[in-house]
Amino acid sequence: MSEKSNMTGHLAAAVTIFIWGTTFISTKVLLVSFTPLEILFFRFFIGYAALWIAAPRLLHTGDRKAELLFAAAGLCGVTLYFLMENFALTLTQAANVSIIISVAPFFTSLFDWLFMKGEKPGRRFLTGFAAAMLGISLLSFQKDTGVQLSPKGDFLALAAAITWAAYSILTKKIGSYGYGTIESTRRTFFYGLLFMVPALFFLPFRIAPARFMLMQNALNILFLGFGASALCFVTWNFAVRALGSVKTSVYIYAVPVITVITSLIFLHEVITWQSVCGIVLTLAGLMISESRFPLKQSSRKPSVDIGMDRP
């Protein structure tokens, strides 16, 4: 691999993680004018349109099992995950949600072992998992003048992380079919939007074009649609091909740090010492757990799945 390709891969990973780390802030800002469902629908509708522009080619699967996998991936990774994440942001701080969502790799490892006959988690995994759960508890159950006790929002974020893990396993299976990355992502977005339709009749949803005339709303929804939902899946997969899945996945640990910093700057959220301890424990646990199989993972063929490592 050339040095230039290596540098480009690192740049792609860094850009992806920076964007994903700030999406919690954009969503929090949009929640002032939009409901969680409205943000979700408009965001992925824009992303779906963008992917059609980027690759105006039909994806012919001709396989019922593949279509069921795409449907399940859309349900888990788009509809359920982002609905729970967006509702969590209405109940707790953006920094908390970002940290808790980062435990998704733990559950991905568990599901890979239970359902895909992957490596059995060992002591390092369990130690890291325990540290991360303790960190999440410190984040969730704290009382002071600046932060409200909000376990419901934090537990909802944890449920979103579990759902993302299921999505990761599904996309791993989809990756074995060898479809194009953009086309596969677009098909997943399609099913995600399709499963949102029933919710449009039960949860608050309206078009209200006047809201999009506000520059703050327009810029944030376009950022989520074009940047976080369309562009980042492509740049992340490019980084995986250039660097390998192990090196690229290390970047995911920067997401909570970016979210904490940006939430301090733009949302003026209060970060207590208990929050800092929770962040450190969660990130330490993640790194301990994810370093359990370094040699075996590096020998595998790099994955080009649809954003497997991100929440």
From TrEMBL:
The record's section on PANTHER family has:
INNER MEMBRANE TRANSPORTER (PTHR32322), S-ADENOSYLMETHIONINE_S-ADENOSYLHOMOCYSTEINE TRANSPORTER (PTHR32322:SF18)
Q: Which family does it belong to?
A: Belongs to the EamA transporter family.
> Which subcellular locations apply to this protein?
Cell membrane
* Cellular component, GO annotation: plasma membrane
Domain (EamA) ranges: 8-140, 152-288
Which coarse location class describes where this protein primarily resides?
membrane
Where is the chain membrane-spanning? Answer: 12-34, 40-59, 66-84, 90-113, 125-141, 153-170, 190-207, 219-238, 250-267, 273-293
Check the record and name the Pfam families matching this protein: EamA
Q: Does the keyword Amino-acid biosynthesis apply?
A: no
Q: What keywords does the record list, in alphabetical order?
A: Cell membrane, Membrane, Transmembrane, Transmembrane helix
Record has 4Fe-4S as a keyword = no
- Top-down, what is the taxonomic lineage of the species of origin? Bacteria, Bacillati, Bacillota, Clostridia, Lachnospirales
The scientific name of the source species is Hungatella effluvii
Task: Write down the membrane topology.
Answer: Multi-pass membrane protein
Q: Under which name does UniProt file this protein? A: Drug/metabolite transporter (DMT)-like permease
